[in-house]
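Researcher: Quick sanity check before group meeting.
Model: Go ahead. Protein one:
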Amino acid sequence: MSATLPLGEQLVANGCITARQLDLALQRQRATSADPTTSAHLVGRTLVEMGYLTQPALHECLYRQFAAERDHYLDNPAVAPVIRFERVVKILDGRRVLDAVDLAIPANRVTAIIGMSGGGKSVLLKHMVGLMKPDQGTVRVGEERLDAMSGRALRQVRGRFSLLFQGGALFDSLNVYDNVAFPLREKSQLTEEQIRGRVLRCLAEVNLIGMERKFPDELSGGMMKRAALARALVTEPEILLLDEPTAGLDPIIENAIHYLICDTFMRTRYTMVVISHAVPEIFQWCHHVIALHRGKVLYSGPSREVDASPDPVLRQFIRGELDGPIQVI
């Protein structure tokens, strides 16, 4: 199924809804939305509200479409990269945390970065947004060298990114609405009315409408992750970085967050980079996998092929076996 088709048309083509149902949902969107640009963006929510789909059925339809695209990526992995690392070295406390790393993040795809704790995943993420600079090598975002930038030029490139922190990093003193609005108030020239429209749209996208006045200590772990995702989405980034989005969640909520990430990708087509310990489950939710171990790239390629890697370290890590080259006991 062509990823260039609008989301509603993809749902029709896959038999999830009828063309008539889509037309009625779009009519309702246009009639009730203050922002006409959301008519196609949030059509899935409207289809659920009108009873044409249940929320689980919508998620399952989107996942089937995503899985088909993931399979297509296996045979067509030549996607232009949006982020490139070239022989990147980073030494911290005398240890090579990144050791001559070469990798490419494909544009408009979901990439998962896996590896043991302390293997360099979070350091890699910090290099992608210029929070760290390599001791050797280059980091490129598009055609721009991030490692050679500072000041205003660096801030402009960072504006292409949004980051979902591992713990959510919500401000305890702000309610959900103000947490999500925060980056717009700090960095944009939008009016408060424009900010309100965008915040409410993002809360709708993560199913948190009605929770605007709740504070972080009133939210469950899953709701905090959704609020943090809404804040990451509100700036409408080109590239979305997610650091352990399912850490500390029970299996059902973890699954729900994976479906939400899939839903977000299918609607927005942002480039997504996900650091995850949810192995091997994460392979179902991404196109591309990068495996790091002791600062080196063990594997970089389609998620459908990572299980077939002959590397003994990677095979042990994926299977969670005690016997192997990684000594843990």
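Researcher: Fine. The other one?
Model: Protein two, sequence then structure:
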Amino acid sequence: MSHEHHHHHHHAVDTSHLNRAFIVGIGLNVAFVVAEAVAGFSIDSLGLLADAGHNLSDVISLVLALLAFRLSKVRPSGNYTYGYKKSTILVSLLNALILLIAVGFIFVESIEKIHTPQPIAGRTISIVAGIGILINGITAWLFFKDRRHDLNIKGAFLHMAADTLVSVGVLVSGILISVTGWSIIDPIIGLVIACIILISTWELLRDSLRLSLDGVPAHLHTSVVERLLCEDKRVVCVHHLHIWAISTTQNALTAHIVVNTFDKSDILKHDLRHRLEEIGIQHATFELELPHEDCHASRCDCDA
């Protein structure tokens, strides 16, 4: 029997840390949006006001991510037997779409600037870009640790990391233009940043869309899970295997397990669930069958 499976230990997300991270991140970004809007009105800068609007979309994204995070903790009910855990997946999909729209705006604006180059609006914009780097960088750092373990958190992190990049781009292009006088540097840096954000966002969109359609989570593979279950000597074969995500951190499985005997079936189920927990499947439901039972399985062979 094959022993090629790899262990994917489930990471326990620190809920109190994340709750704090969301509240601090939202607070910092609301303050920045207000400051940027005030500065934009005071010097009559359309660029600053547009960026304030863009940063407001980040605040909305963080609020949505926090809402999904809170909803995922709501207890199941008669109508929602899994609670609202799926909301984390739907929000990560929504965040990916918002990021793609933002990338579209950056592309359009950058191409427009290449055709009609405009000078960077002075020192105030550079100062605001510097503050933006600080605030967006701090907020991104708050979500850095948990971004690999929760798609919803990854969406929040990507939003803030993308904005940090945009602010860095504004600052760097401002410095380079003041030194060289080449206004075209600004839209070129904008296009480079848009491409970087697009690559990261594509992965988020692909993964969140897959989970929304009840696809097998990216780190799990049906053939590997089947082999893992078949490694138990009491299992003859596995069929009707289904794996899907309940939330961005919890996965479920149902399977028909063919065994030679129902003797000590509770111990077998316990052992199989333990194996699955080690690779990140927390909810497993098994239907045990004897070899002579016919449930219209298309294939049932552990050695296949």
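Researcher: One line on it for the slide.
Model: The chain is about 60% helix and 10% strand.
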